[in-house]
Amino acid sequence: MDENQEELELHFQQLREELDQNNLPAFRDHFLEMHFYDQGQFYQSLNPKERQLIYSYLSPKELADMFDVIEEDDEHMEEYLNEMRPQYAADMLAEMYTDNAVDLLNELDKKPVTKYLSLMDAEHANDIRELLHYEDDTAGSLMTTEFVSIVANQTVRSAMYVLKKEAQIAETIYYTYVVNDDNQLVGVISLRDLIINDDDTMVSEVMSERVIAVNVGDDQEDVAQTFRDYDFLALPVTDYEDHLLGIVTVDDIIDVIDDEAASDYSGLAGVNVEEVNENPVKAASRRLPWLITLLFLGMTTATLINHYEALVSKASILAVFISLITGTAGNAGTQSLAVAVRRLAISDDSEKNFGKLVVGEILTGLVTGLVTGITIFIIVGIWKHNFILGFVIGAAMMAAITVATLAGSWIPMIMERLGFDPAVASGPFITTLSDLTSVLIYFNIASLFMERFIGQ
Amino acid sequence: MDENQEELELHFQQLREELDQNNLPAFRDHFLEMHFYDQGQFYQSLNPKERQLIYSYLSPKELADMFDVIEEDDEHMEEYLNEMRPQYAADMLAEMYTDNAVDLLNELDKKPVTKYLSLMDAEHANDIRELLHYEDDTAGSLMTTEFVSIVANQTVRSAMYVLKKEAQIAETIYYTYVVNDDNQLVGVISLRDLIINDDDTMVSEVMSERVIAVNVGDDQEDVAQTFRDYDFLALPVTDYEDHLLGIVTVDDIIDVIDDEAASDYSGLAGVNVEEVNENPVKAASRRLPWLITLLFLGMTTATLINHYEALVSKASILAVFISLITGTAGNAGTQSLAVAVRRLAISDDSEKNFGKLVVGEILTGLVTGLVTGITIFIIVGIWKHNFILGFVIGAAMMAAITVATLAGSWIPMIMERLGFDPAVASGPFITTLSDLTSVLIYFNIASLFMERFIGQ
């Protein structure tokens, strides 16, 4: 029952043989009965010669169904399109759901896009052109125009008739949107409601007039949040005057949620984590910009320690605890950063409670610093039989942790206020910055108590 | 049209007034026309006295619809249930979708669960009891039993008849699952296919026999991946003999994806990022376990530096670069860790390519280390007019970065092999571990060249 991987491999092998033997009818039968995703897996496993056969065996529409589920950021996408006859590629793009075709075209240069659009029929080309205009990461860039809309003044029976007619091309038929003569969204009715209500009921009687819609310019994160809250399978997209422009479907929202999570994770790590299966030089070149930038920031810390070199040469014991203090404060800063970024991502009230948050973080930093500081005070005091040294290390640790905790939460908040993505304030940045403040705090406290702990 | 926040606030105010004036009919009218999510928002904004009114104004079924969309990890959930009459609470739980009721009961102690189950009708209690058995994070724990199943040997017309009857209680009616006499899953038909096919067609002719199903014991991450791949709105769950047990719906998968992302992010930061709006002491107590654990690991590094104290007192310049080397290596380790954890999460072939990955990471580490090492060699050489010292720092930096890069990628791989979640290897852990190896490398290289760079 459950298509497991082995069965699928066997099936792929059979398909490949049918392809090699030019057994067109058998190939089509077996290929088309597969799920679109599995078709895509098979297609992506082929070599260019075999793919040429595919283009002669399958219609643009059949290929389009498969391309609708291949991720548009596949690195071979451009290659695939280039190896098709331009007219065939254009026809296929026209047959894809508009949002997917647009996502794919967005990965290409301007020239081929113009070429494909010129080879397409006017209607499809216009639909695509319109969607190409919307800014990345907005509801407009996610939406498709293949939805079903009706007017309220008709029976459930006639609505079902429209629905059946549109079912072949609409991306979802599970919601039907009701518009007025001005194409303004006035209601929504689910297919569930259509089939449980009597055929002679008027749509206006059974539709829901409380339609949750998103604005075409809304950020994709907000759209995703609406999906999460209301558990919808699709949402209508309107302009500022409530005109219905398109719909966003839940499968696109899953991609958004994945992308946003990957981007937050990348931010925290200071590296784009999408680098999978890259060669080492390419992988290194993705990591180096941050590393080198932070190396220069780290040089500031080195310069600072250099300034205190006389102190260190008098009391080399101070060198022993540098990495402990900077490391622990860095850890505290990373924790605080992650909590702050997360909080900014899920709540809208950052403005309102700014003061409260700041006080909260100061207190959290103080408590964390106090506990850690007392711990290290006891350890160092006992280890070195020197509680004044223990006090210096403990006090420096506490102050460094408090400052790092504050920096970890303030910096993303300030970035958010300045209009940047707070997730860009990476963990490595915070730890490197915290190295600087920690060293400053440490050597200042050490200078103050210098005579005493050496004397002991 | 688009219910904006302001409108909703006004609506809430009106509802609260109707509640206070005991205006039952008006309240019911206005409350029940809202989306379940908005009902939940209103309910959660009430005080205990007002909530008591809700329990007398709404039926258990009406409350259940709303509870179906309130997140079960809301901290007040237990309070809500406790303030209802036990029979009312039990009736409400019975009316909820089974998967949601189970999620909610899983948050409670054993005693109230037993109480509610004993107050329920046998059928609902059994459904819930069965689902309570499934392990967390498996398909079984996500699934619901409110699905529609039919036999193949009937017409589309009669299938639609069944569907209409079940539409009120099924969690989704957009897929109908076809089973044989043994309740084994043999096919699936979407509502789209049902409505576009002729009423007299047999279900067996139009159903898809290639059903993608998940096994009840499958990990929830794998279930989420199947949803991503195939863009389904629901997936059937079967046991090892293909018996149909339940379905998982896409809204639950969005929660899974969110939870997994939060857990990866928390892992990288070394803190549970779900701590939102907590008081400072609670927030600190979440962060301290990792901090203190890592403080002890950091003490090993301090002990190591202590071992080289004689070296430092002879050449205090060495102290200047400790934090630069440990910091930069730590940053490289964090990057490498994040890439490795991400790769493990999205690919299943970690076993196969283990050797290749290791070689790749060694090379990436070497390239990254080489570039960074040369950079710092030049900077230190010029700054200190001492290229031997520059060479020592550069070589130590290069070696430390290579080791940190390897540790960052190997440790999660090894954890995965040992059956742990690789995301648990946190960024702070890697940086603290890398402090130790970096210091070891640094002082060993420094010892070797000691006489020369001091001499210069």
Automatic annotation (TrEMBL), chains A, B:
Higher taxonomy: Bacteria, Bacillati, Bacillota, Bacilli, Lactobacillales
A matching Pfam family: MgtE
Annotated CBS domain residues: 143-205, 207-263
Localization in the cell: Cell membrane; Membrane
The protein, known as: Magnesium transporter MgtE
PROSITE patterns, alphabetized: CBS
Keywords: CBS domain, Cell membrane, Magnesium, Membrane, Metal-binding, Transmembrane, Transmembrane helix, Transport
Gene transcribed to yield this protein: mgtE
Record text on subunit structure and interactions: Homodimer.
Assigned protein family: Belongs to the SLC41A transporter family.
Topology versus the membrane: Multi-pass membrane protein
A single MF term (Gene Ontology): magnesium ion transmembrane transporter activity
Function: Acts as a magnesium transporter.
Transmembrane residue ranges: 288-305, 317-338, 358-380, 387-411, 423-443
GO cellular component terms, semicolon-separated: plasma membrane
